[in-house]
């Protein structure tokens, strides 16, 4: 079994742009083209529900409750055209999505698609130009349960930057390296390294918070 990790625009999967981060816990694709989705999100609940109320693609929704900072939202409606096209490709090539799907307002949405190498390649080759514009391949390789550890929420480049940061002493106490040192180690501009560090910190701390409140 192979894994294709895609990074998508979070607006395609998040129930609301008012959600700062969250996970899609369950999703059901119905024969009539509609989708039922259960998400756990963080952010301003009133703003999230207001956006769902106004969203044309949402036919029904419900706030199921809140635990800590996480709001559990049920949503039923019609997905974005790009998501519908992706669903059709998954069905055509007999692929599946590994849940949960993580998303946030900073680092977009990470979707793990599982299947044979040939099926994954064929599916991606038939992506429309618009879908390719709104997605990027972050990783392709063997799928193993071990990838479900906390490092699995990071992109491959973010893991490389994290390893460099640890090796140079960026996270030492006291700190013995700068973002420029990390940049020199991975071969990128200091501003790029700083951006990667901010994003990987947002993802890892967000995952720790989610796991702690489970």
From TrEMBL:
Domain HVO-0513-like N-terminal as annotated: residue spans: 16-143
Domain HTH bat-type: 154-204
Keywords: DNA-binding, Transcription, Transcription regulation
InterPro entries referenced in this protein's UniProt entry, alphabetically: HTH_bacterioopsin, HVO_0513_N, WH-like_DNA-bd_sf
GO molecular function, one term: DNA binding
Protein's name in the database: DNA-binding protein
Species of the source: Halomarina oriensis
Taxonomic placement: Archaea, Methanobacteriati, Methanobacteriota, Stenosarchaea group, Halobacteria
